[in-house]
Amino acid sequence: MTIEAPTAPPLLEKPESRIREFCERYFGREEAGRWFSLRASNYKVGKYLIVAALLYDWLVRFVNRDLFYSNSGVLPAGLNVLSVEPWHFSIFYIGTSPFILTTCFLLGLAAYLGLAFGKNTRLFALFSLIFQVSLANRNIYPGFCTDIYSALLIWMMLFPTEGRVPRILVFGYIFQIGLIYTGSGLSKMTPGSEWFNGTAISLIAQYSNITNGLGSILGQLPQSIQLVMCYGVLAMETLALPLLLLRWTRPWMILVLLSFHALTFVTMNLGELPLLMVGALISISTFKVRAQESTEAAVSSTEKPIIALAAWRYPILYGTIGVLLLSLIAADVYNRVFQPVLVKWDYRPKLIQLPVAAYYVSGLARIRQTWSMYSSPLPKTLVWPQVAVTTRSGRQFNLINRQKN
Q1: Which of 5, 279, 337, 355 shows a CA-CA span of 20 to 30 A to 51?
Q2: Contact, 166 vs 309, CB < 8 A?
Q3: What distance in Å separates the CA atoms of residue 55 and residue 310, rounded to the nearest whole number?
Q4: Domain for residue 394, yes or no?
């Protein structure tokens, strides 16, 4: 006769433990105690998507390089009135011959490919930034992603080729991505804004040159639904920066923003903008789908799962660079976005005055935080404002979306 020892009743699993298990499975256990970290595999995928957007931008510009950048095109050298920085440059100022123009574009292509597949990605990020700045300073009109490219490439240029990334650079990179959304959201919050009364969606849906047939349906939705959508966009964009900086809300905010860009991709003609922002968001994500623990253990021995946070060899130097860059970005976005919004609300804040040297650095790296897309007042027309040109050969082009009229 055997007597079995009484077994303890099974412990009830708490809901908190299920949530923790879900987060560890799909967001990664390694990030649980870290405020700012980049998963190496996700950052690499995001970088590839950013480079894909750069290559699309390069192809559109290269095919029409004589129209956009030659002296016989729509904007001869020296007449780019929007390049008002105290000091700026462009490699396209070297010469005006077709050979020099083509050579400059091929050098830019090599920089983009090196950024994606090269070993010294920091160096190729620098070359890519020089090429992007040169394109914008030569002719600002083609494309509206130039300032976003420059903003991202500045931080990618500072990331080490291998090893660990300091907190200040990871914070700055995430801060810059979140600032694009929050600046855009705050620029919409002005007196009498169409985003407040719920008419912004219907106005944007009627712009035939940026909204496709599927997007035009949004303008036919009931007014109550459009009002909810307008306030949803305002809340999403305005809260993007703080929710991306908080480690426990960052994955969920990224999911919301990815869904938003998926919607804009199928309803609007925004060029490479959705692809670019999806790449930026994935690069700061910590999503990780785990199949089996055994597979995870086998891979972990050969793959570095995270660009971890630790001090660099020169933490003071790079910390100083990061703080100065963040200061320039904060001052620029205040002067270009926040201060004009406050003025519209009848406040009289002063512009931030920086030392002359800071303006030269901003002009050199083209730090332009102009995040005000679809801000109020929206044009009351059937098309989004365009820069229509006609060449001597009779070609008609809209420089804003770089499409033929």
Answers
A1: 337
A2: yes
A3: 33
A4: yes
Handedness of CA 307, 277, 198, 373 (dihedral sign): positive
Contacts of 310 (CB under 8 A, 6+ apart): 164, 166
CA–CA dist 124, 129 (Å, integer) = 8
Strand-pair category, 38-39 with 306-307: antiparallel
CB atoms within 10 A of CB 58: 21
d(CA 384, CA 314) in angstroms, rounded, equals 49
Which range marks the domain in which residue 382 is found? 35-42+144-404
Q: Which tokens hold the place of 397?
A: 């082009």
Domain count, the chain: 1
- The packing angle between helices 146-158 and 167-187, to 10°, is 160
pTM > 0.90: yes or no = no
Segment 363-390, tens digit of pLDDT: 788 888 888 877 877 776 656 656 666 6
The maximal CA–CA distance of the chain, rounded, in angstroms, is 105
Task: Tell whether 97 is covered by a domain.
Answer: no
